[in-house]
Every structure is written in structure tokens, then in C-alpha cells.
Amino acid sequence: MKRTVKLESDPLNYWKHHVLKEVEEYQKVIVNEMINIILSEGLPTTRKKLHERFYNYYKKKYPFLPSRIIEGAYIIAGRIIKSFRKRRKRGLTRKDKPEYRRVMISIPNTINWRFNKISVSILTHKGWIDIPLKVTKQFINYVSKGWRVSQELKLRLVGRKVLVLRRRLRWRRKKVITFLLTLMRITPP
Fold first, then answer.
1. Residue 128, C-beta contacts closer than 8 angstroms, at least 6 positions apart
2. 33: exposed, middle or buried (C-beta count within 10 Å: 0-12, 13-18, 19+)?
3. Which domain holds residue 151?
């Protein structure tokens, strides 16, 4: 059983926001380049093939970025292309290629991020950034019952706050959050 918990963060200071914005911009450029290359070369969207094709190239091009950000970029590009190909097959696309506009920073495993129940720490090209969270009652209930946080973390900057997302969401908050949010998929013990 999987659930997603949405948490709002406290507003970030200028430096943290600026660093996350830089990572977001790098990821947008990388993913859009990967989308163009995958479509032009007709590459499969499997994680292994994308890693073989893109990892070394982008690690040389952006040596200062943590490797998990590059890994997250080709995972996102693969998901976008896979979805685009299905939609194109059904005749539901208007464009000849997809565009990555709503940027989400994806970190595929817990090597480059940490969660300590009151904050999320993320490794960026400028070091570790600590994002303090506003904890909800529902999240406290899940954590106290022994549920574990998933491996993948997704962040979306919304103003001075962050949104952390996970696919296959079951729990949703009614209130629209205009700040930094954090969603983490958690699994029962």
C-alpha cells in the first residue's frame, strides 16, 4: 500500500531559493536536450539505455552537479517520451515533440537527500540545503505507525517554498498550496 503525503515548507531564504532555482534551470535544460535527442535518435526509454547514452556526456558537461540530479533528469525525460509516444499513437498530440515546462527536481534515491521528520536535506552543487517542513497531523500519524519514506524525492519550487511529489497519489489535500510543498510516498512496515 502506498500513500503520498503533501507537506508545506517554511519560506526559504534567498540563498536556498537561488540554489534550488539554479538546479531547476539546469534540469530543465538537460531534460529538454534529452527529449530532443531521444526523439531524433529513436532511443528506447528504458533506464539502462538512457543511462548508457546520457550519463557520461552530461557528467562531463556539468561536473559540478550531483550525479543523482543527472540521473533524475534522464528518468524524467524517459517518462515524458514514453507518455508522448503513447499519446501520439492514439492521435492525441498537437505538437511533434513534448516540452518540459513545469520543472520538477527529481532525486531517485536517498544517497543525495535525507529526511529527519522535521526537514528534508538535499545535496546540490553548492552543498547540502536544509528545507524545514510544516508537519501535518496526517503525516505524524503515518510516521508514528511505522511507515517508511520512499527512495525517490521530487521537488517543485512554488514561490519561495517547495513541492515534493510522488507518482500514484492516493491522498490529496483540498487546499491549493501556493508555497513550497513536499510530497513523499510512504509505505507501511
1. 121, 122
2. middle
3. 3-13+104-187
Shared domain check, 142 and 177: yes
- Cell of residue 22, nine digits: 539554479
Asked if 85 and 127 sit in the same domain, the reply is no
- Per-residue pLDDT reduced to its tens digit, 23-53: 999 999 999 999 999 999 999 989 999 999 9
Q: Is the pTM of this model over 0.90?
A: no
- β pairing state of 161-164 and 153-158: antiparallel
